[in-house]
């Protein structure tokens, strides 16, 4: 698991991330190319989810057309997840099972997304409440993602 809070990936953790990404891509009949590895490098070191223009700015040599295509493949393989915001651009981050469980603060004005973790007691209460809601609908809950939508400090 790669901690999101530091924005850095240790060597052993990075090797494990590469192994997992390659295996997930293989299941789709895809290869772990240099371009895909470069996208993962950018996302693994980002402190929060990034838009495609932000990814391109952080990854010198990344081509916009291949970034779109490769992000779609990485998303389908379960290596990357896309966060839809009210802004013009979706944001991308490594899939949660490769980092740590967290939630998002989404600004409804500018579309910026920030990561937030909640205390373990709150997370347990949230899991219990969501499990009850799912059970009442005959749904087996495997996990949850929570986006808190509001206005960021800069837009207030």
Show the helix and strand layout.
Elements: H1 11-27, H2 34-45, H3 52-58, H4 64-77, E1 80-83, E2 91-94, E3 103-107, E4 113-116, H5 120-136, E5 147-150
Parallel strand pairs: 3-5
Antiparallel strand pairs: 1-2, 3-4
Contiguous helical run count: 5
Q: How many strands, which pairing sense, and closed or not: the largest β-sheet?
A: 3 strands, mixed
SSE string? HHHHEEEEHE
Please report the distance between the alpha carbons of the first and last residues: 35 Å
Strand content: 5-15%
Uncertain segments of ≥5 residues (pLDDT<50)? Answer: 1-12
Shape: globular
**CATH fold group:** Arc Repressor Mutant, subunit A
* CATH level 1 class label: Mainly Alpha
CATH arch. level architecture: Orthogonal Bundle
Q: Specify the CATH homologous superfamily.
A: Winged helix-like DNA-binding domain superfamily/Winged helix DNA-binding domain
Kindly report the average pLDDT value. 89
Q: Please give the number of β-strands.
A: 5
What would you call the structural class?
alpha+beta
- Percent of residues in helical segments? 40-55%
- Radius of gyration, in angstroms, nearest whole number: 17 Å
Strand order of the largest sheet: 4-3-5
The tally of domains stands at: 1
Characterization of this structure:
This protein has about 160 residues and is of the alpha+beta class. It has one domain: Winged helix-like DNA-binding domain superfamily/Winged helix DNA-binding domain (Arc Repressor Mutant, subunit A), CATH 1.10.10.10. It is built from 5 helices and 5 strands. The strands form 2 sheets. A 3-stranded mixed sheet has the order 4-3-5, with no helix packed on it. The longest helix is centred in the N-terminal third of the chain and has 17 residues. The N terminus is likely disordered.
């Amino acid at each position: 698991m790669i901690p999101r809070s530091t924005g850095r990936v240790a060597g052993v953790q990075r090797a494990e991330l590469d192994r997992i990404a390659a295996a997930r891509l293989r299941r789709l009949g895809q290869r772990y190319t240099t371009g895909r590895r470069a996208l993962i490098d950018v996302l693994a070191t980002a402190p929060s989810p990034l838009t495609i223009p932000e990814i391109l700015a952080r990854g010198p040599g990344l081509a916009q057309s291949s970034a779109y295509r490769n992000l779609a493949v990485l998303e389908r393989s379960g290596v990357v997840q896309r966060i839809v915001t009210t802004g013009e651009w979706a944001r991308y981050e490594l899939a949660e099972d490769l980092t740590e469980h967290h939630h998002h603060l989404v600004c409804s004005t500018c579309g910026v997304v920030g990561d937030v973790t909640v205390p373990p007691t709150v997370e347990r209460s949230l899991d219990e409440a969501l499990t009850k809601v799912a059970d009442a609908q005959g749904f087996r809950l495997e996990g949850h993602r929570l986006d808190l939508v509001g206005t960021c400090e800069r837009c207030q």
